[in-house]
Design brief:
By secondary structure, this protein is an alpha/beta fold. It contains seven helices and ten strands. The N and C termini lie far apart (33 Å).
Length: 187
Amino acid sequence: MARTLAIAEAASLLQRGGLVAYPTEAVWGLGCDPDNEATVLRLLELKQRPVDKGLILVASHLDPLRRWLDLPALPPERLAVVLASWPGPHTWVMPAASDAPAWITGGRDSIAVRISAHPVVAALCEAFGGALVSTSANRGGEPPARCRADLDPLLDDAIDAIVAGDTGGLAQPTAIRLALDGAILRA
């Protein structure tokens, strides 16, 4: 069973290549350093998720996401819509920077990002000093964990730590929309 750490300790562990579970807006998430390919691949293996699906990056504000994004490729009026929705439970698929790694983008020219208002997520990103991978804490085909007790024991044993807290109370994981036109990919 993974040990529970304070946010600062969990952030330090993430900086060293750790894999951490934490509460998000609706479900428990798994996070890691998106620049650490080995840890991202470990996360994908644990989840039984193919790399070509891509992953969501979460941050506490826009600055840590800028290096991952090609913001000039997004029309100003669409960028305004995206920015007006944050911080909050809105995940947007945006044009990716040309050097965004395939282990995050799934090999696409886009990347899913969110600026979270959830206090644990925001504090963890701040303490880490950047954006984090954020994916639901469940194995492929299994329902996401709604509370700490719902975490799959196999995941719980395989991750490095847990950050205590409660989910934000949303009934469903955050909607995912295309930034270019607002089309809904996941309601």
